[in-house]
C-alpha cells in the first residue's frame, strides 16, 4: 500500500445529514483530514454558514446542498450535484436519522412509523442507490451508514427506531455482498449513546412513557460526537481496504455487556 493508508487527503466526500451531532463532527473531521466535501442536510441557511466555517477552519473545499432524504428526486439530485462539484465520489456517509416518538407498539402511530422508516431506512437506501454506481464505475469507494447498538439489540418503547437500525444493518451487509467484487466497501458504525439532540430527545420521550432506565454503559458515560470520527475516517481510508459488510460498535461496551 503506497503512502499513508490512513490519509484521506484530497478524497471526495458526500456526507448526508451534516447539520448537527455525529454528522457535523464527522464533517469537521473529514475536512481537517484534507478531504474535499459536499455536506447535505435540511437547512440551506444554516448549512451555508457551516460549510463556510468548516472550509475556513480546515482549508478544504466544502459546499452545502439542501436535501430531504425521504425524497428520491432530491437524493438523486444531491448525489449528482456532489459528483459534479467534487469531480467524482470516493466516500459517502449516510447519517440522517430521527429518534421518532417513544411509545409502546400498540400506542405507536403507523404514520410516525412510516416517517421514521422514510428517513432512517429509505434515506440510507436512496443514498446508496445513487452513490454506488459512481463508485463502481471507478472501481473503488467507501460508504459508511449509521446503524446503532439498537441495530443489534432491542430498545423498548422505541421499537420502530430499533427496527429501522436493524434494517440499516441488513441493507449495509447486503450491499456489501453485492458490491465487494467491484471494490465498493459498505460498512456501518453502531454507536452507543452519543451526546446529541437525538439522544436527549429519545431519552426524554422514553422517560415519559416508561420507568425502564436508559441502557447501562460499561464505560459509565455517554460519548461525545467526535468520538465517532476515528472509526469513520478509518472506514473511509485505505487502512480499512479489506473491511466490508462490518457493523462496527463504538459504544463504551454496551453490546459486550
Ligand atoms: P442529530 O439529531 O444531531 O443528527 C441527525 C441529523 O439528521 C440532523 O442533522 C438532521 O437534520 C438530519 N435529518 C433528519 N431528518 C432528515 C431528513 N429528512 N433529511 C435530511 N436530513 C435529516 O442526531 P445524531 O445523534 O447525531 O444522529 C446521527 C445519526 O446517528 C442518526 O442516524 C442516528 O440514528 C444515529 N445514532 C445516534 C446515536 C446517539 O446516541 N446520538 C446512537 C446511535 C446511532
Q: Outline the low-pLDDT stretches.
A: none
User: Any idea how many domains?
Assistant: 1
CATH topology: Rossmann fold
Q: Can you tell me the overall shape?
A: globular
What order do the SSEs take from the amino end to the carboxyl end, as H and E? Answer: EHEHEHEHEHEHHE
Count of helix runs: 7
CATH architecture descriptor text: 3-Layer(aba) Sandwich
Radius of gyration: 17 Å
Largest sheet: 7 strands, parallel
CATH H-level name... which superfamily?
A: NAD(P)-binding Rossmann-like Domain
For the termini, the CA-CA separation is 37 Å
Give the names of the bound compounds: nicotinamide-adenine-dinucleotide
Task: Give me a quick take on this structure.
With 257 residues, the protein is an alpha/beta fold. 44% of the residues lie in helices and 15% in strands. The protein has helices at residues 21-32, 44-58, 72-86, 110-138, 159-179, 197-209, 229-236, and strands at residues 12-16, 36-41, 62-66, 91-94, 141-146, 184-191, 247-250.
Pick out its properties.
binds nicotinamide-adenine-dinucleotide, alpha/beta, seven-stranded parallel β-sheet, Rossmann fold, 257 residues, 7 helices
Characterization of this structure:
This protein has one domain (12-250): 3-Layer(aba) Sandwich (Rossmann fold), CATH 3.40.50.720. The model has no long low-confidence stretch (mean pLDDT 98). The protein starts with 11 loop residues before the first strand and ends in a 7-residue tail after the last strand. Helix 5 (159-179) links the parallel strand 5 (141-146) and strand 6. The chain is built from 7 helices and 7 strands, in the order E-H-E-H-E-H-E-H-E-H-E-H-H-E. The longest helix has 29 residues, at 110-138. It is globular and about 50 Å long. The chain has a 7-stranded parallel β-sheet with strand order 3-2-1-4-5-6-7, with helices on both faces. Helices cover 44% and strands 15% of the residues. The protein is an alpha/beta fold. The protein has helices at 21-32, 44-58, 72-86, 110-138, 159-179, 197-209, 229-236; strands at 12-16, 36-41, 62-66, 91-94, 141-146, 184-191, 247-250.
